[in-house]
Amino acid sequence: xxxxxxxxxxxxxxxxxxxxxxxxxxxxxxxxxxxxxxxxxxxxxxxxxxxxxxxxxxxxxxxxxxxxxxxxxxxxxxxxxxxxxxxxxxxxxxxxxxxxxxxxxxxxxxxxxxxxxxxxxxxxxxxxxxxxxxxxxxxxxxxxxxxxxxxxxxxxxxxxxxxxxxxxxxxxxxxxxxxxxxxxxxxxxxxxxxxxxxxxxxxxxxxxxxxxxxx
Length: 215
Prior knowledge:
The chain is mainly β. The protein is built from no helices and 22 strands. Strands 3-4-5-6 form a four-stranded antiparallel beta sheet, with no helix packed on it. A four-stranded antiparallel beta sheet has the order 7-8-11-12, with no helix packed on it. It has a four-stranded antiparallel beta sheet with strand order 13-14-15-16, with no helix packed on it. The protein is globular and about 40 Å long. It starts with a strand and ends with a strand. The model has no long low-confidence stretch (mean pLDDT 95).
């Protein structure tokens, strides 16, 4: 199922077509131009959304799920994730049609969150209860200052590295939220309801949305 949000209410729209039931898919973009990818069972499929319907697009080079997800439909990134039975360290960028392999992240991880663009990104957290963060400059990944609260399956958003926001995560459905200023992370207002592995939207620490999650 797929739904769009107008700031007040949710509306059912066209369903995805490639994978009818799969956990751990990730996506990027807007309500008029989006992309989703991956999933359990070694799913490499991706699909584009045009505001009305979904259509199959190019496959990931490495099938996986619970990757970090960031960017827009024509410039998205998937980093890390899980390739049963191993944690992934691959990163790939998407141009709206096809995926291209990039340099590996420093520390392989699943249930990782991210923010930014395909030329300036940050990823953070991951199993097991990680605090580690890494930044990407368009070519390579480098370790940066860690989160204050370790977490996996967190949510994250931000249209640039200095606007990154990390919220929620596991284990246990955390409420803690942190913002990144380009150098370090600092605690801000907690989520009203603790959760992990939800979805996220927004521009970062000035405007964000947390959707669903566990438990």
